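User: Quick sanity check before I run a bigger batch. Here is a single chain. Can you write out its predicted 3D structure?
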Amino acid sequence: MLNISYKKIIDKSPVGYALHEIICNSKGQPCDYILIEANAAFEVYTGLKISDIHGKRISEILPYIKKDSFDWISFYGNIALNGGEKEFQQYSGVLGRWFTVNAYSPEKNYFITFFTDISEHIKKQSDIQELLYEISRDFVNVKTENIDQAISDSLEKLGNTIEADRVYIFRYDFDRNICSNIYEWCSEGTAPRINTLLEISLDLIPEWVERHISGNPLFVNGETDLEYIKERKHLRLDEIKSLIAVPIIYDHKLYGFAGFNSIKNTHLYSSLEHNLLQNFSQLLLSIMLRKEMEDSVYLKKEIFRTTLLSIADGVVSVDVDENIILMNEAAEKLCGISYKEAQGRPIKSIFNFIDSDSKKPYENTVDNVIRTGLPEKVSGNLSLISRDGREIPVQYSASAVKNKKMQKKGAVIVIRDATSERNIQKQAEYLSFHDHLTKLYNRRFFEEELLRLDTLRNLPISFILMDVNGLKLTNDAFGHEMGDQLLKKIADVIKKECRNDDIVARLGGDEFAAILPKTDIEQARLIMDRISNSAARENLNNVVVSLAVGCSSKTSPDQNVDEIMNIAENNMYSNKISSGKNMRKMTFERIVDNLFKKYKNEIEQTSAMVELSKKIGTAMNFSQDQLSNLEIAARYHDIGKIIISPQLLNKKRGLTLEEYDLVQRHSEAGYQIMKSQEEYSSIAIYILSHHEKWDGSGYPRNHKGHEIPLLSRILAITDAYTAMTCNSPYRTKLSKDEAVKEIMDNSGLQFDPEIVDIFLDIVLHEDL
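Assistant: Done. Predicted structure follows.
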């Protein structure tokens, strides 16, 4: 029987796949989720390495996901907790891409996502809409004598957009039972066929004619399709690998067909390209009919009607008195009034335009267009107020309509809903000048404002530079989410204590700054002191909120603003020497206090471990300094457990791989916390290595033998022994004999055999 590895199938799939576990807060509400596994396509789409993010929280992988315009965590949490399956398209601001996502829950608390990156599809769709808009505008304004050139130009635009090798228009003549190639564009290196494909007998292409008469397009996607159509011989002569040809139908009659050919490479034409060709064929029909019937009044109305119905933008036609003659469905939706209700009424009474910023009425200049004959386009801050009061961002263009004698007979107005473009523009503008996390201005904006405000009328101008004390320690001890909360808290404090006209920015990392125009040094110091004092009063879950600050003031135009800023920076660093050290000490004390509150059994175990470690050190003839270091290392050996929740550490059932990995990280966290304390920095290495094993199977660096610091080898034994013999919620307490046997059994494996001998001599011969 065929043995199929579905795991390999998923790994090789071009569709992004990921399995996640939802994380809920104490109220049972989704607050995060963890990546359990994913395939290679996931890495390609997201740019994230699975090896780097496996088992991590999404908020750690993508810190700004909670600020995204779409609430991914709540959405996936609902599926994971309540079941069901959903498919949708969504834009991710964090990753800057569009995705089609299919999500479902295989069992409670878990969800699987299959997704594909459709950013290129969305962009192509937008490009196609823009292309149709441009072609429609060109067709509306083109003079009769320039129609052939306009059609040729449009074919070239189409071909370049979809990368076809040949774009063409054929006209059917059923009276003569022939069809002819009347327009054509070819890519570079593709031989033209317009002069040879003339008066082709319809008997040679029966399947094409049959499909087009029924209103259906013809698709050929590769050699396989060629085998099933009667015209394959003719297509092979032209070396056509794939094509799409759609019928052009007017008034229920087949007029001709438009098509794309691919010759150099096989191109699978999508529904998007199919729709493009269909829409284009309708636009094309109107202009070809216009060319054939010229100034026929009937044809002019049909051209305009066809054009109106074939584009998605609002189109309105007015006479010389600016009264509405025609209006398409898109225009009806924009203004909220039907064509029947608007017909014959002045356009100014139907379409209410305003300036998007000032909200003042915008006088549309249809009368200027009709009077001068010159087109007008407005694509900036223009909005349309619909009948229901909605303010819709729009782009507006108007062109005069003239008869054959160049007499002005009215105008055509095209109104495009620009909501998406305006939102994207606003979002891009906001993000370009603001910090994602704190919502303050960013360094780029700060530097531009510094140049703008450095003028005589703003003197004296002062600067406050600020640096968050202990951000790294907060991240190491309490996690990056808490570090982000600290930064946001600091940002709120600074913003609150500064004035409305002051420029407050996060320069990056833990650095903040403020520009204070028309402010002398005394006022700047008062504001700086308010910021420091306000920060000191804040309480953030046992995290010390502290800032190092410095200020300076420019009082003369001759002074260099960069040098003044350097003075503020030097003052800040001078302040940081004292305030930073004090903050780190306070944070360390809170960590220790919080640790023993979270894990009450740690007090008993730590005390026993300190005493036992000192006895081993004494037996090994340690100096007083060595004994002191050993005692400190034993006392704070598990300080890194502050990063682990009590629920996880006290878990009675076995840990998952992800949970075990988090537990192992506590020795690295402890190392970073101890390094932050100047008096304990030399002890940090012993904390880092106290879970290394003699045979090299420990963590975090897999050191073995004498690579492991001596004091860490002592801690490894005393930690294991006291853990086995002290009370613990997740382990049954062992007797002294049982614990000693465990130590002996692991001598030379987990523990240094020489230290084990010293340990045994102490334990077996002294009353501990």
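The first strand starts at residue 16 and ends at 24.

User: Great, the batch can go ahead then.
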